[in-house]
Amino acid sequence: MSALDSLYQQIILEQAKTRTGADLADDQLQGLHLPAGVGQCHQLNPVCGDEITLRVETAGTGSGRAVSGIHWAGDGCSISMASASILSELVVGLGAGEVQGLIDSFREVMRSRGKLEADEEVLGDAAALSGVSKFPARVKCAMLAWVAAEDALNQTG
Amino acid sequence: MVLKSADHFHDGPLTDVEVRRIRNDFPILDQQVNGNALVYLDSGATSQKPVSVMEAEQEFYEQRNSAVHRGAHTLAVAATDVFEDARATVAAFIGAAENELVWTANATAGLNLIAYSFGNASVGDVPAEARQFAVGPGDEVLVTEMEHHANLVPWQELCRRTGATLTFIPIMEDGLLDMEAAAALFTSRTKVFAFTHVSNVTGVINPVVELTRMAHDVGALVVLDACQSAPHLVLDVKALDVDFAVFSGHKMLAPTGIGAVYGRAELLDAMPPFLTGGSMITTVTMERAGYLPSPQRFEAGTQAISQAAAFAAAVNYLSETGMERIHQWESALGQRMVAGLEDIPGIRVLGPSAGTARAGLAAFEVDGVHAHDVGQFLDASGIAVRVGHHCAQPLHRRLGLSASTRASTYLYNTTDEVDAFLTAVAGVRPYFGITGA
């Protein structure tokens, strides 16, 4: 597989079009009057203009809470959009601690400059984004939704 | 240095044969990127450097390195000569006198120098001759919707500090300035008009003489962003009649870290300084300081001396090749690019369509594929382009985009490279599985 093909695996091109979770309404972008257990974060990559507003809904309280929904609106390259879509499919139903663990693992792979291969058992479809870590200029694209999710999740605690 | 004596006497654009010879002076171009010959189409961001420029910088450090404008020793004199000869060379390149050219770190620093100097003329105890630069509540600073952030944000900040109002000339769908709207925007309130000569996104070449006349008719000072024109066409600041012009060395074969501000002599000598300190003063007491005339007035601290020497070598290289010939060559490449892009399904070129004058660059949108992905795909073929908003977010927003892909040429690009670029662009949508026109 060429380096380009390892970056743009079929699953990524498909997820970039599917955009699971990309249903945050325009009037929700400001994130006003969020109920308890809901967090929201806006992330922008000023270099390329990639942008996402991501909302995390949780059920339960404290460390026992679990993610019950992810909703986002964004605009960006296929890597950033696919990454947001994969994240949305991956974390709904997981406990807050598990989600934080996934975010940590994903970040570690992304920052590895191609040295770490993601464990598909742990990261599921997000493992397909491993190739991104060989392209330092694209790591921010892949991380955009995950950074937003981390911040939004922290707001719910 | 390439000094092909016969080239001087040629008219018309460069030829592919000459360009291939020029490329020998740019060692960086002769390399493989991702298994393909490098096709460098990002000169709008920064240009590559010929051997003569790199040698000029090295020669300075090997033979003459010393502080300028101070010290009585022989090396100090030699360094000062290099520094001031370089100023004369670059000033002559744009039709200015030596004392009308101020060194800066780059164009952004130059635009900030002007905006901050105007700001310094707007507050506190200001000498009478500096009041012509003052802006305040009720005054307007006029820009355009196509500005690079470097010629927008410093003016926003000047307005914020002084209470003046920022206004702008809108652009039309084809990227050209709306001249009808412009006519109504020049009023007695307009104190400064800052605009770009050539858009770094659409390649639009603005009617500088006409716009400058409109500004002068209402008594406004004219600041020209010449970043995308000084490297690519014959720039004569006197013929254009602008009050200030700003450009960057690194976009015109020179190293990074050096740029210049042109200002009419009587304006520069009256304008308050921006950066203050050593090398720009006459007499300093514990209470106050007097300032040297231009250009030293604006050159506080140790300057980029070797870069100035290399900047002179760069404009010599351009002059010897011939700016008009370079301009015609790049115009032809630009037209070839735009015509070729327009023939590819799903591509929308920003700015004027083929057949209309533009600089030798083209920014475009690929329907269904984000610019970042386009750039990545082209890079796999060894083609270097710029992706993103190119520091012109308002322009992109106006055209309904957040990002685009830009290919920009220079004197060392061949028609074969443009064709290789077009072939690669045609492969983008199929690769990403996008079909339809």
In a few lines, what is going on in this structure?
By secondary structure, chain A is of the alpha+beta class. Chain A has one domain: Sufe protein. Chain: A (Alpha-Beta Complex), CATH 3.90.1010.10.
Give the SSE map.
The complex is a heterodimer of chains A (157) and B (437).
Chain A: H1 3-7, H2 10-18, E1 38-45, E2 50-59, E3 66-75, H3 78-91, H4 96-110, H5 120-123, H6 139-155
Antiparallel strand pairs in A: 1-2, 2-3
Helix pairs in contact in A: 2-3, 3-6, 4-6
Chain B: H1 16-23, E1 32-33, E2 36-37, E3 39-40, H2 51-64, H3 74-93, E4 101-104, H4 107-120, E5 140-144, H5 153-162, E6 165-169, H6 179-185, E7 190-196, H7 208-217, E8 221-225, H8 237-240, E9 244-248, E10 259-263, H9 265-268, E11 281-284, E12 289-291, H10 305-321, H11 323-342, E13 347-349, E14 361-366, H12 371-380, E15 383-384, E16 386-388, H13 393-398, E17 404-408, H14 415-426, H15 428-431
Parallel strand pairs in B: 3-15, 5-6, 5-7, 7-8, 8-9
Antiparallel strand pairs in B: 1-2, 4-10, 9-10, 11-12, 13-14, 14-17, 16-17
Helix pairs in contact in B: 2-10, 3-10, 4-5, 11-14
Q: Per DSSP, what share of the residues of chain A sits in E-state strands of 2 or more residues?
A: 15-25%
Distance between the termini of chain B: 48 Å
Helix content of chain A: 40-55%
What is the 3D form of chain A? globular
CATH class of chain A: Alpha Beta
Q: Percent range for helical residues of chain B? A: 25-40%
Q: How far is it from the N-terminal to the C-terminal residue of chain A, by CA?
A: 43 Å
Architecture of the largest domain in chain B in CATH?
3-Layer(aba) Sandwich
Content-based structural category of chain A: alpha+beta
Tally of individual domains of chain B: 2
Strand element count of chain A: 3
Spatial extent as radius of gyration of chain B: 22 Å
* Global Rg of chain A: 15 Å
Which architecture of chain A does the CATH hierarchy give at level 2? Alpha-Beta Complex
| Largest sheet composition of chain B | 7 strands, mixed
Structural class of chain B: alpha/beta
**Total count of helical runs of at least 4 residues of chain B:** 15
- What share of the residues of chain B does DSSP label as strand, in percent? 15-25%
Low-pLDDT segments of chain B = 1-7
Largest interface: pair, residues per side: A-B, 20 and 19 residues
- Provide mean pLDDT of chain B, rounded: 95
